[in-house]
Amino acid sequence: MITLKKNALYFIFILLTNIAWSQVSISGYVYNNHKTAIEGAHILIQPTNQTSLTNYDGTFNVQNISAGNYTLKISYLGYKTISKVIEVKNNDITLEFNLEPDLLNLQTIVVTGSFNPNKTIETSTSVSTLTQKDIQNTFPRGTANLLQNIAGTFTDASAGEVFTRVYTRGVSASAEDDMGWYYVSLQEDGLPVSLVQHSYYSPDLFHRTDITTQKVEALRGGNASVTAMNAPGGIYNFISKGVNETFGGEIIASTGIQGEDNNPIYRIDANLSGPLGNNWYFNLGGHYRHDDGARNTNFTFSKGGQAKLNLIKTNKNGYFKFYGKLLDDYTNRYTGVAATNWNDPKPAFGQSFSSTALMMPSFDVEIPDGRNPDKTNSFNPSKGVHAQDFALGFDFSQNIGNNWTVKNNIKFSTKKANWQTSISNAFVSLNDPTAYFVSGADYPIGQVVFNDAQSGTELARVDNSTILSGGSFQYLTNGSLPNDAIMGTSAWYKDISADELMNNFVLQKQLKNHTISTGLSLGFSKTDHFTQGSFAYVTYEPNPKMLQVTLQNPNQPIVALSDAKGASNYGGLFYVNTNANVNQIATFINDEWNINQNLRVDVGLRLENITHKGSKDQHAPLGLDGGVDGNENTAYDNSLKGPTGETDDFNFNYNYISYSAGLNYSLSTNAAIFGRFSRGNKAPELNYYFNNFDNVPINGKGEVQKITQIETGLKLSSKSVSFTSTLFWSELKNIGSSNFEFDSNTNTVFYTPIQFNTSRSLGFEWESIVTPIENIAFKFNGVLQNPKAEKWRIYNAAGTVDTNDDTVTNYSGNQLAFNPKLMFNLGSYYNNNTLSAFFNWQYMGKREGNAANAFQLDAYSTFNTGIGYKITKNLSANLVINNLFNSEGLANFFGANSFGASANGVTNDFVQANPDASFVVVPILPRSSLINLNYIF
C-alpha cells in the first residue's frame, strides 16, 4: 500500500512537472517593408483566443501556451493579415513577421454592416475604411468634411461642422437642407449617435471626430437594410481606440488660419491608454477647440469639445467594455450668399463667395416665451447651436461554448440642442411692404427711422406712404441703407432635448458551413421640441448691422417696430411646441453559408416596428392688450404666438420587412467578385409631424419609403495594385416632398402639403490605389451615375396660405436634384520613415439645383495638400492645406433672393421672366491651413 501511494505521488509529480514544462511562451517581432517596427499590431492565437498587442518596438509575448497546434493571426489596419500555423512543443518560440501593405484595407477585418466580421475582400458589400492617417490628412471641419474622402459618398459641408448632408447612390430626396442624414446611420462603435431626426436635429450635431477615433468604416447601401436601425442608405461607423498592452499616449497641438482674413483656429487633442492589471485596459481622450470660422463674422464660430472613456476587460472568451462620452460644444452654420446671372453666377451686392457670411452680428436680447409670456428666452445669434450629449454604454462579446457566441451593446444618452441663429438672409427691398409689416405692427406706414442699434446713430429716414399703391419709398434725409434694403431674417430659437436608450443583441451559432446570427434591436427616445421665430431688423450688406426701427409720424406717438437691439415681432413668425416618444423594435436573422472554399452566400431578414406617439400644440397670437408689456406703441411684442390649450395628437405604428441577399466568390486569395440584392424601408422621421399639420389635426401617418438596390462588383488586392468596383441600381419610392414658405399677407411661415415621388439611379463606383514604386502611391475613387426623378411633383402655394391659387407641377423625368453625374478624388502620396506628403484633387460634377432643372450648380474642383516630417522617434510635425487654390464652387441653391423663397420656386419660366434677379447660393468653404505637432509617448 505504501509503495502504491509513493508511485501515485511520483506519477502526479511527474505529470504536474510535465504540464508546467509544457507551458511555453510565443514571442515575436512585427515590422513593415521599411524594416520599421509596427506598434499596436493585434495578435490572436486560436483556438484559445488569447490575444496581445505589439509594443512600441514591434515585439510581443504570449505566455502560458500548452503543447499543441495553433493558428497565429497578426493584423494591423493598413496591412495584410498574416495567418501562420505553428506547433508548440516544450520550448519557447520566437518568430518574425513582415506585414505587407494592404492598399485598400481589403485584407482588414470589418465589423460594420456584418453580423460575422470578415475581411473586406470576403464580404458581399461595398465597404470602405478610413485610417487614422486619412483623418490626420483632413482639416478638422466636421464629420461630413471627412467623409467626402469615401468613394461614392456625396457630402455637403459648406455650412460648417453641422447642418451637413451625406448620402449615396441617389438615395437623397429627403436628405436636403435641414435633414441631411435622413437615409444613413452615423454610428459610434456600432450604435447610432442619435435615434431620431427632425428639422435642425440631425446626428452630426452630436458627433465630433478627434484623436479617439481608430478608424471609420463606411457601408454604402447593401445590407444596411437588415443591419441598421431605419437607415437603409448606408452606415458610417466611427470606431474608437481599444486595448493597448503598454501605457502610452498621444498629444496633438494644432493651430491654423482660414479664409480671407486669416481667421485663427486653435485645437488640442489628447489620448491616454494602457493596462490597469488583471486584463483590464483603459483609453481616455478627447479634444478642445476655439475656431473663428472660415468666413467673416464678428464672433467666435465654434468652441468646445468632448471627452471619451473606454474601460475594457478581456478574457479567453471575449471582452467586456464600459464606455462613455461627454460632449459640450458650440458651433454655428453658414447660410447662403446672394448671386446674379443664372448661367454663370457671380456674387451680388458687394458680397464674396470666399469671405461673406451674411449672418446677424452678435447681440443679446430677451424674447418672451410664447408658452409663458412671463418668462423669456435669451437669444444671441453668435451662439449658433449649443449641443450637449452625455452617453454611457456597455458592450460585450463572449463565446459561451459549443460554438455559441453572445453579443450585446447597450447605450443610454441624454441630449440637448439649443439653436440661436437665423434661417434666412434674403434681400427685402424698402419698396416691399414686408419690410414694415413683418414687424407685427398694425399699420406701419409713414416715416420710418432706422438707427444703428449699437451706436444709436440715425442711418436713414424713409417715407413709405406710397408703397401700398405701387409707389416707391423716399429717403427724407441724406442717410440711406445699404442696397436700399433690409435682410429678411428670423431670430430662430429652438430648444430640443432627447433621452435615448439603444440596445443591440446578437446570438450566433457556428456550424460546419453556416454562421447563423439572430437577435433583437431596441431603441427608445423621448423628445421635447420647442421652436419660436421672431423677426430681426438687419442691414443687407456683407458685414450686417442690427437696426433699431421706429415709426415717427408727425403729431403721433412714436411706434417702436423693433426693440433697442433690433429684434422685432417677438415670437410672431413661428411657433411649434411638441413632444414625442419613439419606440423602435426589430428582430433579425442572418445566415452566412460557406458553400465551398470559394463561394459564400449570406441572406438576412429584418422585421421592424416603429411607433411614434406625441402631441403638438395648436397656437395663435395671444392677443394680449398692448402686447407683452401692455404698451401698444411697442409693436414688436404685440403678435406673440402661444398655445390655444388644444393639442393635435398622433399615435402611429409602422411595420415593415426588409431583406438582403449577397454572394462572394473568391477567384483567388487576392481577388473576389460579389453581388447583392436588397429591399429596405425608411419610416418617416419626426419632422413629418413637427413641420406639417399646422393648427390642423394630424389625421394620417406618413408613408414608408421603399428602397430597392442591386449591386455587383469586383475586389482585387495585390502587392502594387488594389481596387474595388461596383455597378449599382437603386430605386426610392414614396418620397415625401414639402417646401418651406412665407405668407406676406399674414406674416407667417408654413410648409406646403407633401407630395410623394420616386427616383432611380444607375451608376458605377470605384476605389483604387497603385504603388508603381516603393514609397509612392496614387489613389483614385469616385462615382459615375445617372440619377433621375422618375416620378416627381412639386406643390406650388403661390406664396400664400390660401389654397385657392395653389397648383401642382409635374417634373417627372427630370434629373434628380443635387446629385452629380460624376464625382471623384484623385491623389498622390509619398511616405518613408521620416517624410510624408500628399496632393489630392477633389472633383464635384455639375448638379441640378432643383426639381424643375431650371438652375444648374456648375462643376468645381478643390485641391488639398499636406506634408509631414518625423522630427524624432516621438515627435512629428504636419501641415495640411484645404482648398489650396481657393476655389469658389457652389454647393447648394436656396432659390430666389426673397424672404421665404425655396429652391423649387424657381422654374424655367421664372428665370426667363426674371433674367436679372438675384438668388441665394451656398459656396464651398475657402482655403484653410493647419499645422500641428504630434507627440507620442
Automatic annotation (TrEMBL):
Pfam families the record matches: CarbopepD_reg_2 (PF13715), Plug (PF07715), TonB_dep_Rec_b-barrel (PF00593)
Main location: membrane
GO MF annotation list: siderophore uptake transmembrane transporter activity
Keyword Transmembrane helix carried by entry: no
Superkingdom, taxonomy of origin: Bacteria
Chain ranges of the TonB-dependent receptor plug domain: 121-235
GO CC entries: cell outer membrane
Keyword Membrane: yes
Keyword field: Cell outer membrane, Ion transport, Iron, Iron transport, Membrane, Receptor, Signal, TonB box, Transmembrane, Transmembrane beta strand, Transport
Membrane-related topology note: Multi-pass membrane protein
Protein's UniProt name: TonB-dependent receptor
Species assigned in the record: Seonamhaeicola algicola
